[in-house]
Amino acid sequence: MTPGKRKVAVVGVSLSDCGRVDEATPYALHAQAARRAVADASLDRSVIDGFASAGLGTLAPVEVAEYLGLRPTWVDSTSVGGSTWEVMAAHAADAIAAGHANAVLLVYGSTARADIRAGRRTGTLSFGARGPLQFEVPYGHTLIAKYAMAARRHMHAYGTTLEQLASVAVQARANAAANPEAMFRDPITVDDVLSGPMIADPFTKLHCCIRSDGGAAVLLAAEEYVRDCRTPPVWVLGTGEHVSHTTMSEWPDFTVSPAAVSGRIAFERAGVRPDEIDVAEIYDAFTYMTLVTLEDLGFCAKGEGGEFVEKGRLTVGGELPVNTDGGGLSAQHPGMRGLFLLVEAVRQLRGEAGQRQVRKAGGRLPELAVASGTGGWFCSSGTVVLGR
User: Fold this and answer.
1) What CA–CA distance (Å, rounded) separates 185 from 213?
2) For the segment 322-363, what is each residue's pLDDT rounded down to a tens digit?
3) For site-directed labelling of 348, which of 135, 241, 247, 326 has its Cα 20 to 30 A away?
4) Surface-to-core class of residue 386, CB atoms within 10 Å of its CB (0-12 exposed, 13-18 middle, 19+ buried)
């Protein structure tokens, strides 16, 4: 943090009910997560003067703030897909540090699964066909096909195997097994992943994230309010953001994600190295996202991600625990999942993760975590480094 500016901490985190939530509205999930996060911090809600939300309502975040009974003097509605919440956290931290806000609440909620089951049109809306996307949509270039193409390119360029990609899903499920809030907890094998129904070559069903309902909330506050909170602070040490492309023809290299830029910036600002990180929470709509983001954040060299993800390295007891709650592949994925990454990172640093708690040598709690969100089809990235 720049000298003379306030330090910023995450003081409250929570999830709403998640998984199969057939009766709640998205607004209700926003409210549930928000109430729980404020209660987690035990900070008087009158201190909250900033609010950030995206993805719900015509005038987001105005509608959601009104629903929650908030009248903020600082707002953010940045919407860049799954990385939205890491980018919003960066904006909120900057605003608090500069004195433009004292406490900022980030909230998300979605009934993505329930909408599909109920046949609501909102459950299957496309990204649209105007602007640059008009040149790809006529060819049936779906979101999952774009990820599949990128994965195939990595396999061609570096010899990454289907078995290595499948191991990412297997380890995510192993982590989910210890998470009572995870939607799927039964163990799976590499053979289970490989033998599943094909969705978009090379991705079978278990290479792809689940579809769930759920919400999350994160409350950030200036350092002078930390003493009024129930929870120990988790400090925002550094952030980075980057946008890359929207059309695949403008993506210079399918094997490099925008996390290569956002991660570098975040680590530089935090003054830490990737090899100092104890826990990594990474957006995982597909197995390839985890693998390539690990490379681009600097946990291994470009092209070595396949070997890196093997042999249980990503499990809670592994060398680099990744997506310790089970991630989008097994825990929950109600749409723009980036806020869930921040919640899990904070819980791990506080030592509140229960059976899935990461421990360092001697039983010590982790000290540094990174949350890296990805939006669109590797279109954007936000990275946040957190520390106790």
Assistant:
1) 17
2) 999 999 999 999 999 999 999 999 999 999 999 999 999 999
3) 241
4) buried
* CB neighbourhood size of 271 (10 A): 11
- In sequence order, the 6+-apart residues with CB closer than 8 A to the CB of 366 are 278, 279, 348, 349, 358, 359, 360, 388
pLDDT at 376: 92
d(CA 295, CA 272): 17
- Which of 234, 216, 161 lies closest to 193 in space, CA to CA? 161
Query: Stretch 118-135: mean pLDDT, rounded?
Result: 74
**Burial status of residue 130 (CB atoms within 10 A of its CB: 0-12, 13-18, 19 or more):** exposed
Residue type, 281: E
Cis peptide leading into residue 61 (ω within 30°): yes
* Res 123: pLDDT: 56
Chain centroid offset of residue 108 CA:
12
Is 20:113 a contact under the CB 8 Å cutoff? yes
Residue 113 has pLDDT above 60, yes or no: yes
Radius of gyration of the CA atoms of the chain, in A: 19
In single-letter form, the type of residue at position 12 comes to G
Q: What is the pLDDT of residue 130?
A: 79
